[in-house]
Amino acid sequence: MSKSNKESSNEVLVRLINEKGIMTDPILVPKVVKTDLEWRAILTSEQYSVARAEGTERAFCGVFHDNHKKGIYYCVGCGLPLFRSDAKFDSGTGWPSFFQPLAKENLAEDVDNSYGTTRTEIHCPRCGAHFGHVFDDGPAPTGLRYCMNSAALLFEEDRAAGSTERQTAYFAAGCFWGVEEAFRTLKGVTSTTVGYMGGSVPSPTYQMVCSHATGHAEAVQIEYDPSVISYDQLLDVFWKIHDPTTKNRQGPDIGDQYRSAIFFTVPEQEISARASLSKLIKSGKYHGPIVTQIELAVPFYKAEEMHQHYEMKHAAAR
I need a surface site. Which of 54, 160, 235, 278 has the fewest CB within 10 A? Predict the structure, then answer.
């Protein structure tokens, strides 16, 4: 894939997908760069073996090779949307196969000369995850077969129109005590939980996170009813309750656990978050750069019970 002259070494031109399933025009987004230790903490051993170590799962063993549900397949490493289910076909090979990508910008190609043959490797242009290979023995209309590994993919099933199924959002905006309270009291929010996200150590404790050695952010998990409150409304609250221009700091609280971050759970949350960020930048409210991270939700570790609903419990005691 040729590199656009509008890209920098830290950005890549891709297409995202909105809540209506419509692709955006190509937009520049930051590349996702993590240490090997961070990838190992985020991915399962099988996911790491395929996506980061360029391995291949056994035929007919992947969770998606026989998946017939309608929805979107996206990158396990960064959440970039890759394929629609209507482009999936039974190739008989034992790996999930597709005859065309959701957007050509969202796949990158390299020549793979391993195993004494020349193949075209497919990987993620944003985070570098290895997906599989593409061959020219697929069905019409493209004649291509994108032979992917299930372990390198995530899947979001289409929701029925008007669905009121509860959804999940994750935000980090400083000390999670106050952030949780700001969201807990909103109509349509059904539950909140505080915890740790985005680090390199599994199951951290509060003391470990405060040592600045794990890389986790203090985050809030929010369960909400989209028929009552939208993700965009949650984003509006997120921006209002903290200063997104202060890196690793909110007021007197200093450290990487207090960083500003949005962890999206499905592809359409990402485009909403980036559109919301763009709107805020254009508003001119802040003179300095906004440092909020927008990235795929990673394992969330529930914080100790003493931190849950802290503001509510202590307000009741006063």
Answer: 160
Establish if 217 belongs to a structural domain.
yes
Query: What's the pLDDT at 9?
Result: 84
Q: Which residues, in sequence order, are CB contacts of 70 under 8 Å at separation 6+?
A: 85, 86, 157, 158
Is residue 137 situated within a structural domain? yes
* Strand runs labelled E in the chain: 11-14, 27-30, 71-75, 81-84, 88-89, 97-98, 108-112, 119-123, 130-135, 145-148, 153-157, 167-173, 189-197, 217-224, 249-250, 253-254, 260-264, 293-296, 301-302
What whole-number distance in Å separates Cα of residue 74 and Cα of residue 124? 10
Is the model's pLDDT at 316 over the cut of 80? no
Task: Write the CATH number for 61.
Answer: 2.170.150.20
Peptide bond just before 26 cis, omega within 30 deg: no
- 20: tokens are 């209506």
In angstroms, the CA 175 to CA 316 distance is 20
Residue 208's CATH number? 3.30.1060.10
pLDDT score, position 114: 84
HSE of 9, CA atoms in CB hemisphere, 13 A: 0
Catalytic residue among 78, 127, 147, 210: 147
Cβ atoms of 53 and 46 closer than 8 Å? no
Shared domain for 187 and 309, answered yes or no, is yes
Residue 4 falls inside a structural domain: no
Look at residue 163 in the predicted model and tell me its pLDDT.
Answer: 64
Q: Is the pLDDT of residue 159 over 90?
A: no
Catalytic pick among 61, 127, 175, 210: 175
Give the C-alpha distances (Å, rounded to integers) separating 206 from 72, 166, 215, 217, 305.
36, 28, 12, 11, 11
Amino acid at 281: I
Encoded tokens for 179: 């952030």
